[in-house]
Design brief:
CATH superfamily of the largest domain: NAD(P)-binding Rossmann-like Domain
Number of strands: 22
Strand order of the largest sheet: 3-2-1-4-5-6
Shape: globular
Radius of gyration: 23 Å
Number of helices: 15
Structural class: alpha/beta
Distance between the termini: 27 Å
CATH class of the largest domain: Alpha Beta
Helix content: 25-40%
């Protein structure tokens, strides 16, 4: 597909990189010459310097032939105008990043009047991600698939965990409704097979329905009780959306914000949150608020360094769960070494949501991709496909499908029932198929199999 991206910041660059790897023709529009020079030198893309809302710039980019326009500049209004102008000039589908909560109340009207096909709100999506993480204190990441029927939970294996040293083929007998979908060991991402043995220190993704996942971790001796209290540092958009998301769930929320103006506004907007006007990165303030006794410390200021240092201090003081927001994507790689495992990035979340949408628009005739989720620092991806009638892989036992190396069919969802598949199981038309694979190796479901050409 021909895809035009307006905005060559971290999100725009990440999108251009991933989408060009998927084989799409990418054009980037931005005013920043240095950013465009970097993209031109490192990516196989076309770069145009200019204003993405300017009709001449859009025409120069060939917007009339664009299948998708993606506007991800730092300005909500500019992104809206870009999409409106691009659609008027012939672009088939538009995606806009819109962040301000004031627009959230009228998004449906905005999309209709401005002809925007999809709106991405990074802060709201990040708040939803944090809300999921609060379910299990020990979890590093949690993602759901098949409308919540399947959960994928990342956790670190402790030396006392009973799954250590047992081949996965035997573990499947003990926990038949759990699939071990991906493992990271010593920096290497692994798609495990039946002979693989989990070791202490591994980061493992366990997949299954919510009830089975909860039962599995209880049997492992891990705390599966819902978080009862949380402290948020920083009163930005994410904190607002997170507080709204947790309202009525019985979580005692405290929010520390240094700005008097923000504190006054948040006090008016959030009835069930204790607002504390102070410097949440000050260790004396944290101690006075008993940071070590809170269920979760969530660091959401605009500065990565402050979030990291505050998170490290909270972990040292005994906070059960520490979640840190970072803006610079290269920071993600060093967070584990600093002892902080639950990290959220609005920019990465935005890129992943848009990638999923683009891939869904580029469906093959044999499958529909519903979701793409980056795992283990982007080294592995989980996919949710819907298998369509007439596909060449239907009704064939998985043992005969010649599943490609580095690909694992994790779960089949059929008639609202989850199936942990074995060699004798098959994919039927209409199934939700959740699989994991090395990043970039799968675009369509048929990419997972080496299907003989002679088969109908």
């Amino acid at each position: 597909m021909n895809i035009t991206i307006v905005g060559d910041g971290k999100v725009g660059y990440t999108l251009a990189q991933r989408l060009s790897e998927d084989g799409h023709d990418i054009t980037i529009i931005d005013k920043n010459a240095e950013a465009l020079a970097r993209a031109s030198e490192t990516l196989d893309v076309m770069c145009i310097r200019g204003n993405g809302a300017n009709v001449r710039t859009l025409i120069e980019s060939g917007i009339e032939n664009a299948d998708i326009i993606i506007a991800v500049t730092g300005n909500d209004e500019l992104n809206m105008v870009c999409c409106l102008a691009a659609k008027q000039l012939g672009a088939k589908y538009s995606i806009a990043r819109i962040r301000d909560p004031e627009y959230t109340e009228s998004l449906t009207l905005l999309q209709d009047k401005l002809d925007i096909d999809q709106v991405i709100n990074p802060e709201r999506a990040t708040a939803q991600e944090i809300s999921r993480l609060l379910r299990f204190p020990f979890a590093i990441n949690i993602e759901s698939f098949a409308h919540g029927r399947v959960e994928m939970v990342e956790f670190r294996v402790e030396p006392t965990d009973p799954i250590i040293g047992v081949p996965l083929s035997k573990l499947n007998g003990r926990h038949p409704r759990i699939q071990y979908t991906a493992v990271q060991r010593a920096g290497e991402a692994i798609i495990p097979d039946g002979s693989f043995e989990i070791a202490a220190g591994d980061r493992v993704y366990a997949t299954g329905d919510r009830e089975s996942i909860t039962r599995f971790f209880k049997q492992m001796g891990k705390d599966t009780s819902r978080m009862k209290s949380a402290m948020m540092i920083g009163g930005g958009h994410i904190s607002y959306y997170l507080a709204r998301s947790l309202a009525g769930m019985g979580v005692r929320l405290r929010l520390i914000e240094i700005s008097d103006k923000k504190c006054a506004r948040l006090s008016d907007q959030l009835d069930d949150v204790t607002i504390i006007c102070a410097d949440g990165t000050d260790q004396e303030v944290l101690d006075s608020e008993n940071v070590g006794e809170c269920g979760a410390l969530i660091c959401l200021t605009d500065r990565d360094e402050e979030n990291i240092i505050t998170g490290m201090y909270g972990a040292r003081r005994g906070a059960k769960k520490v979640i840190v927001k970072v803006n610079r994507l290269n920071t993600l790689e060093v967070m584990e070494d600093l002892g902080i495992e639950s990290v959220v990035s609005p920019k990465l979340t935005t890129a992943n949501v848009i990638l999923r949408s683009v891939r869904a628009l580029n469906n093959s005739r044999n499958s529909v991709v519903e979701k793409v989720y980056g795992m283990l620092g982007g080294k592995v991806e989980a996919y949710e496909f819907t298998a369509l009638q007439g596909a060449p892989y239907l009704n064939i036992p998985l043992s005969q499908l010649n599943i490609r190396r580095g690909v694992l069919v994790s779960v089949l969802v059929r008639d609202r029932k989850n199936i942990i598949p074995f060699g004798s199981d098959h994919i039927a038309a209409g199934d939700k198929v959740i699989l994991t694979a090395k990043a970039g190796s799968v675009v369509n479901l048929e990419d997972a199999f080496e299907i003989p050409e002679s088969r109908p």
